[in-house]
Amino acid sequence: MRIVLLGPPGSGKGTQAALLKDRLGVPHISTGDLLRAAVRDGTPLGIKAKAAMDAGELVSDELMLGLIEERMGAPDVKAGYLLDGYPRNLAQARALDELLDRLALPVDKALALTVDEEQIVHRLAKRAEQEGRSDDTEEVVRNRLAVYREQTAPVTGYYAEKQLLQEVDGMGSIEEINQRLTTALG
Hints:
Layout: E1 2-6, H1 13-24, E2 28-30, H2 31-41, H3 44-54, H4 61-72, E3 81-84, H5 90-102, E4 109-114, H6 117-131, H7 138-161, E5 165-169, H8 174-184
Parallel strand pairs: 1-3, 1-4, 2-3, 4-5
Helix pairs in contact: 1-8, 2-3, 2-4, 4-5, 6-7
């Protein structure tokens, strides 16, 4: 099964992807992890990404697609994948679909975790406390949620139009949410 996992920051995408990958027997492809690994390993794309990040710029869509394309070429992806953290806007969703169609690995389902924003603020404040993260202050989280609503939330509409979207309640325990996701996958 080829799945795109969507949801606002703090909705539990990474936690749920880690659980689902084992159940489904497919790799969890986190674009953040891909980017960090490419930079760490000094790959040609990683060198370009590091230069952009060092200059305080966002890594371009073209570069991220290149990283995704490299990863999608790995043998373990043939059985399916769980893509987390991408696409983040409509242009990325369209470009990703073009890439995946070309690779004969189109998305089968888009799962969108829906979570109350106040719950997200609470979750990320707790994560900041537990992990000592300075990027999860209430002000920063609320800004990230505003950016999500403006840029990323429309991606769910894109997948809904393609009849690939399944919204899943992301409230409750990790186990409850995981059960709902599993049920949504059929």
